TrEMBL record:
Gene3D superfamilies: 1.20.120.1080, P-loop containing nucleotide triphosphate hydrolases. It comes from the Eukaryota. Residues 210-399 form the Helicase C-terminal domain. GO terms for biological process: spliceosomal complex disassembly. This is RNA helicase. PROSITE patterns: DEAH_ATP_HELICASE, HELICASE_ATP_BIND_1, HELICASE_CTER. Residues 709-736 are annotated as: Disordered. One of its GO terms (molecular function) is ATP binding. It is an enzyme of class 3 (hydrolase). It comes from Mortierella isabellina.
Length: 736
């Protein structure tokens, strides 16, 4: 039984406890820096809790959900209280706090949503923006908002905690506030670069290279755990599998006394392999923080989450693939795409640093030192590389009319702001003067992207199919893939069996209706885990979706949006009976209103099939009007179907059906070596052309979307902030 109280006293922050408390008492703004693992996230909020009884409630933001969960669990254990009482967490769709909660960990997105509801953040006495170096979009916006809130509420304490040393910027932003530095206790890390590998050539095979390197470390290096940085769930699962297979072979060989000599250290023959990424179930994540059993070596394949957000004890070896999956604004579609891209020097340094937490360590970089020299020094803040749609909508909801002049720590590119305003206008969320509409307010009430929120609202009031659309949206809103893909190593039979299951559940129109099919079949099978397993369906995705769905229903009720079942239509199906061909009619959900609902959000994400190949090209609706506006540069982009798409099966199995696909709508694009679409369904171009959204493209020219003509005085702002129910109308806010 580890003595947690004892452990707490060993952390670098401990000896500064009193100084920290004094500094917090004295200053309204404070920047705190310290090495990852020094105790900032877990300890400093507890010091405030323990030493400052005058503090009512502390809110701590984390850029990642997994960090909010693991940290709050750890802290509730250290406080010897059960999670959700004194210490709790809130993340999207999951609230583990109560009226007694005094220390609340949450994602930065949650605090942003709370700020929309209550710009004064009255429930908190202290707000801590943690992992500020991550510079997520939400964190950056919070900086601006907190500064505003502080002007209205000087008693609010604002702490910014960060791992890197480049914090002057934070201090400058917060009125040149003091910087409290916690000296680190780290051990030297030896860095090993691949001699000649250029990062560009590594891109196609970094997963297997990382696995080989980890295996090399396992078989040649002394005891100590290994942390491997990869990019996402798919490559992590693959790496775990491949590494496991290699170890099995090794174990087998060892039994026949083959590889014995390869071991330098007899202590570490066995491995415990762990994946670590954001959408993992909490229970699975927990094990990764436990020390490996004696004689075992822990090998963790992780995303960037392990770079600074969570500390895994015992790591001595780091394998850095050099890649990360990042949100990146795609000017072709006007949406965020996920891009596998090379990291910055700062990120490489952080990754290597993970090896020197408890003893001297070693970092293997899969790329050459020359490649390192050519990496950008710092990661570009997310606000400068992502679609600002949700952010701008949230700011508009807070009556911040002139977005271009909002106090950002690093201003987003003006064209990004204008693109977001344009998209919001096209979705009907803001009007010609850049003022949020009633529809926009409804959309902002959903913790979903404005696109998906638009879809739900439309399904309730225009297309009368909100029951079904809500189901589909709940599944698509999660980060889980709906189907599980077997590894090719499991053999042809298994792969064929999985394909067959998927084909059975697939709907001929594509992914949206397939999701509904899977959901309904799962329900018919008592939501059984066994059914999911037997049918290669991701059970977790459905269980999560169920909880998301019920929360979305609550929001719909609040907004008085009706829940309506889609109409059923009769379809003639031809079948084959023993005595020859026969026809029967079945009643099915009509896909048309459902797909039309989705188009209200995604009508700018439409592509048509290039002749003869399974490649699509993006369609720019404004080409249609013959004028060159924001989207027109994107006439032709090669888009591919993700192999898990319902439509891609048909391409493989039945080439004749392929020719029947003309237009598709898609929900997401990921780039690794090519652009891949996910969430794809067949549509008719007529649906796009007759949609309300298409009409708005025509109206764009006459709109003044940023609303800079409607600047408001700080006095007025104070009134507006104090009374959030005041609707923002241009008449009210033009008193400059
Ligand atoms: P920082 O925020 O400065 O990076 P943390 O407060 O997150 O540091 O972590 C301090 C130490 O607490 C870590 O070095 C680690 O040993 C321990 N720790 C943090 N979270 C957990 C956890 N969930 N399980 C076990 N140990 C943890
Ligand atoms: Mg931390």
């Amino acid at each position: 039984m580890p003595d947690l109280a004892q452990d707490r006293m060993l952390l670098p922050t401990y000896e500064f406890k009193q100084d920290l408390i004094d500094a917090i008492r004295e200053h309204a703004f404070l920047v705190i820096i310290g090495e990852t693992g020094s105790g900032k996230t877990t300890q400093i909020p507890q010091y405030i809790l323990e030493e400052m009884p005058e503090i009512k409630k502390i809110g701590v933001t984390q850029p990642r959900r997994i960090a909010a969960i693991t940290v709050s669990k750890r802290v509730s254990e250290e406080q010897v209280t059960s999670l959700g009482k004194e210490v709790g967490y809130t993340i999207r769709f999951d609230d583990r706090t109560s009226s007694t909660t005094r220390l609340k960990y949450m994602t930065d997105g949650i605090l942003l949503r709370e700020a929309v509801q209550d710009p004064m953040l009255n429930q908190y006495s202290v707000v801590i923006v943690d992992e500020a170096h991550e510079r997520t979009l939400e964190t950056d916006v919070l900086f601006g908002l907190l500064k505003q809130t502080h002007r209205l509420r000087p008693d609010l304490k604002i702490l910014v905690m960060s791992a890197t040393l480049d914090v002057e910027k934070f201090s400058d932003f917060f009125d040149e506030c003091p910087i409290f530095e916690i000296p680190g206790r780290t051990f030297p890390v030896q860095i090993v670069h691949h001699q000649s590998m250029k990062i560009q050539s590594l891109k196609s095979n970094f997963v297997s290279t990382a696995v080989e390197t980890a295996f090399y470390i396992h078989t040649t290096e002394k005891s100590g755990d290994i942390l491997v940085f990869l990019t996402g769930q798919a490559d992590i699962e693959r790496a775990c599998q491949e590494f496991g297979d290699k170890c099995k072979e090794l174990n087998y060989s060892r039994d026949v006394k083959y590889y014995e000599a390869e071991y330098r250290d007899d202590d570490v023959r066995d491995v415990a392999i762990y994946p670590l990424y954001a959408s993992l179930e909490t229970m699975e994540q927990r094990a990764v923080f436990e020390p490996a059993r004696p004689g075992k070596r822990k090998v963790v394949f992780a995303t960037n989450v392990a770079q600074t957000s969570v500390t895994i004890p015992g790591i001595k070896y780091v394998v850095d693939s050099g890649f990360v999956k990042e949100k990146s604004y795609d000017p072709n579609t006007g949406m965020d795409a996920l891009l596998v891209t090379s990291i910055s020097q700062a990120a490489a340094t952080q990754r290597a640093g993970r090896a020197g937490r408890t003893a001297p360590g070693k970092a293997y970089r899969l790329y050459s030192s020359d490649s390192y020299d050519h990496m950008p020094p710092d990661t570009v803040p997310e606000i400068q590389r992502s679609s600002l749609l949700s952010t701008v909508l949230a700011l508009k909801r807070m009556n911040i009319v002139d977005i271009l002049h909002f106090e950002f720590i690093d201003k987003p590119d003006e064209t990004l702001v204008m693109k977001a305003l344009t998209q919001l206008f096209l979705l009907g969320a803001i009007d010609h003067n850049g003022v949020i509409t009633d529809l926009g307010k409804q959309m902002n009430s959903f913790p979903l992207s404005p696109y998906l929120s638009r879809v739900i609202v439309s399904s309730a009031i225009e297309h009368e199919c909100s029951e079904e659309v809500l189901t589909i949206a709940s599944v698509l809103a999660g980060d889980h893939d709906l189907f599980r893909a077997p590894s090719p190593r499991q053999g042809e039979d298994v792969v064929a069996e999985a394909e067959k299951c998927k084909l059975k559940l697939a709907h001929h129109t594509g992914d949206h209706m397939t999701v509904l099919n899977v959901w309904r079949t799962w329900r018919d099978n008592d939501e059984s885990k066994r059914w999911s397993r037997d049918n290669w369906v991701n059970h977790k995705a459905l269980v999560t979706a169920k909880s998301v769905r019920s929360q979305l229903i609550d929001i719909m009720k609040d907004l008085k949006l009706p829940l309506v079942r889609a109409r059923r239509i009769e379809i003639e199906k031809s079948g084959r009976k023993k005595d020859g061909r026969s026809r029967e009619t079945v009643r099915e959900v009509d896909a048309v209103p459902i797909l039309k609902s989705f188009l209200t959000g995604y009508y700018t994400n439409v592509a048509n099939k290039a002749t003869g190949r399974s490649v699509f090209s993006h369609y720019s609706p404004d080409q249609h009007f013959g004028e060159k506006t924001s989207h027109s540069s994107s006439a032709l982009v090669a888009l591919h179907l993700h192999p898990l798409c319902a439509l891609s099966d048909m391409f493989d199995r039945n080439k004749t059906k392929y020719s029947q696909i003309d237009w598709v709508m898609y929900m997401q694009v990921t780039y690794t070596n090519k652009a891949v679409m996910k969430g794809v369904s067949k549509i008719l171009l007529d649906w796009v052309r007759s949609g309300k959204g298409h009409e708005r493209i025509r109206q764009l020219a006459s709109a003044n979307l940023n609303g800079e003509s409607a600047k408001i005085t700080s006095k007025k702002r104070k009134q507006l902030l104090a009374d959030d129910s005041t609707p923002a109308s241009s008449a009210e806010s033009s008193d400059t």
